Amino acid sequence: MTKEFPANWVFEQYKNTAFGFEIKEVLYSKKSKYQLVEILETKDWGRVLMLDGLMMVTEKDEFFYHETITHLPMALKEGKVKKVLVIGAGDGGTVRELTKYSQIEKIDMVEIDEEVISASQKFLPSLSSKLSDKRVNIIVQDASIFIQNAPNNEYDLILADSSDPEGFAATLIETPFYNQIKSALTENGIFMAQSGSPLLQADELNKTWKNLNLVFPHCELAWSLTPSYPGSYWTYVLASKTPINKAIKQKIQIPDCKFWKPELLEALLARPSLIENILNI
Ligand code: SPD
Fold this sequence. Notes:
The model has no long low-confidence stretch (mean pLDDT 96). The chain has 9 helices and 12 strands. The radius of gyration is 18 Å and the shape is globular. It has 281 residues and is an alpha/beta fold. It is 27% helix and 32% strand. The strands form 2 sheets. Strands 8-7-6-9-10-12-11 form a 7-stranded mixed sheet. It has a 5-stranded antiparallel sheet with strand order 1-2-3-4-5. Helix 6 (175-184) crosses helix 7 (202-215). The protein has 2 domains: 9-58, Spermidine Synthase, Chain: A, domain 2; 62-278, Vaccinia Virus protein VP39 (Rossmann fold, 3-Layer(aba) Sandwich). The structure holds spermidine (SPD). Spermidine (SPD) binds at residues 54-57, 65, 89, 91, 93-94, 161, 163-164, 194, 229.
């Protein structure tokens, strides 16, 4: 049986699957130099940001993703984190979480599309409000170009909060990019990147893991949830030049978290058999 949906329903189609929701209004819609940037007011998910029709964030569930990509590597990092590079992330959610740490002195955020930043600043203040923090340096550039000129041993933490690895983001899972990330990391620095849905993007996850392991001697995989992403179940890869000891280093409660707590670390780093099969380990 099929159901007819009224015109105010929007669907994110990813391959052969769709996620649908009813909207109240289109707040912003503009074709930027790179993609169609849309911010929609929805009935159940708060405001949502979509790029080329693909879901990036919803106000309702963005905390799962942003808290995981920030607090999990911070909990693992030996020693202080002073300088952070964030790739993509123009909505500001990852930067918001990073600014909760007083030890962080500088956050370079490299986002290719300034329309994403300005639309988020206007319509998604709950995510973007900390982009004005004085430690944040916004660079509008393709991250694969930026990283070629980044100084060696510069960043204690590098987070790739990018779109799916297609189009202009495809280079972000290739070995030349990972080699440059490795050079820009401090000796015991940690790289973490979102690596997609194990259910619907298994090939991309396998390629990401394979390429990362060609470059870094120490890699880990973490998982979390994002109900509005295809398949809901989401993965992240981590890499470092030195062994990543999975024991918690910074067991601090972070203010205003809805998902993250240090007690989750061990579970989020455990690999279900589904993941081991995709990674061939
Ligand atoms: N399929 C969606 C993957 C998007 C990952 N990045 C989202 C950006 C949130 N800051």
